[in-house]
Amino acid sequence: MPRSVWLRCNRLGVAVVAGPLGCFVVWRRMAYFSESLAHTSLLGMALGFLLGINLTAGIITACVALALLLATLQGRGRLATDTLLGIMAHAALSVGLVVMSLMEGLRVDLLGYLFGDILSITRSDLYWVYGGGAAALGVLAWMWRPLLALTVQEELARAEGVPAPAVRLGFMLIIALVVAITMKIIGILLITSLLIIPAATARRFARTPEQMAVLASGIGALAVVGGLFASLRWDTPTGPSIVVAATILFVLAFTSGGFPSRSGG
Q1: Which residues, at least 6 apart from 6, have a Cβ–Cβ distance to it below 8 Å?
Q2: Which one of 62, 80, 137, 243 has the fewest beta carbons within 10 angstroms of its own beta carbon?
């Protein structure tokens, strides 16, 4: 199998990880948070170039810092969450672009980072994706029940002793990690799509939260395969082709005779 095709297949791993996480993003209405993390990735990339460190490490640092800052500001309750996210996302994006513009001699393929660049992926990037993805899924499985309880009925979950702030922060940190490690493969502008669209499609057919998580991973993987086929067949950009394939599956799901979801959210 050609190297480029083999690297494209690694996007299946991203789809499997994004499926269960995307379910909670949809249930908890956190789409704007994941979008904000994607924008913050550009700041992390700029810091990586500026400090001469691994770009993935810089992106993870920036995304984790955003999650911690959001959790801190949410606790003070002075501004609505969407307002905070809007301020931080656009500030991080703008600061990242300004920092990169001030670094003389730096030549960066922004389109590659915005939409993903298969040919620039290294073995180290793959280690980050599979190692970080496995860790994220493991932590999500460990905190599944308390997070689901908070999602369904937060007041009741608190009464039963669920540490709501810690669980919320833990989930935000997981999303931050996944967005950071998959940005180079999927692209800044497209990673949120792979989190949201398959989960929203699976919601049409799932009867339980667990079923929805499994279906979301499967639908995401199917979208990756369809997007890869279109990219190879018609020489279209791989990342956007995957999102188009996911969108087609979403439209087909909601125009078909599937049964309503009972998975909540």
Answers
A1: none
A2: 80
Total-model pTM: 0.86
Question: What does the radius of gyration of the chain's CA atoms come to, in whole angstroms?
Answer: 18
Per-residue pLDDT of 36-95, as tens digits, reads 888 898 889 888 888 888 888 888 899 899 999 988 887 777 778 888 888 998 998 899
Q: Provide the residue count of the chain.
A: 265
Q: How confident is the model at residue 127 (pLDDT cuts 50, 70, 90)?
A: confident
Name 56's Cβ contacts closer than 8 Å, sequence gap at least 6. Answer: 48, 124, 125, 128, 180, 181, 184
Which tokens belong to 82? 């969407």
The answer to whether 146 and 162 are in contact (CB under 8 A) is: yes
241 Cβ partners below 8 Å, 6+ apart? 226, 227, 228, 230, 231
